[in-house]
Amino acid sequence: MLVPYFEKIIVEYENNRERYKTFRDFVPRLLSALDNVTVNDVRRGLGLPIEKYRVTVTVNVPNANDEVFLTGNQAALGNWDPKKVKMEKSSELSRTLTFESYPDLQMKLTKGGWEKEAYVQGVEKGENIQLKLGKDSTYHFQVNGWKE
User: Fold this and answer.
1) pTM reported for the whole predicted model
2) What counts of helices (H) and strands (E) characterise the chain?
3) 18, 26, 76, 142 — which has fewest CB within 10 A?
4) Residue 31 belongs to what domain range?
5) What is the domain count for the chain?
6) Is residue 62 domain-shared with residue 128, that is, in the same domain?
């Protein structure tokens, strides 16, 4: 997928061998080419859709003091960092988060670490919650307990 970006920049290396004595000298320039590549460029190259939808996730939790983090395969969800995106307390037993997402959404709920992953009603233990978005959507989930 990234080969076309690198092909253009490799020409610079070949045409400037006095400046770049070794390929190692050229690597920082090669990596800087990635600065111009966007997520949408990569998604287009992989044949994935680039439109985004507004998603609201509401989670009912078993205990009033439960903090819930939503993580997933998108930057808005911390790119699988289990403690990066904390859901807001919307009521004593409810947590909510609204974010923008590409259509191919995968996510999990945690208490801030993989050792405290949620057991979500209707989702096999350990599996990702997988959603295929086609419009702005709201989803409700029930946490039945936490991995111990």
Assistant:
1) 0.79
2) 3, 8
3) 18
4) 3-37
5) 2
6) yes
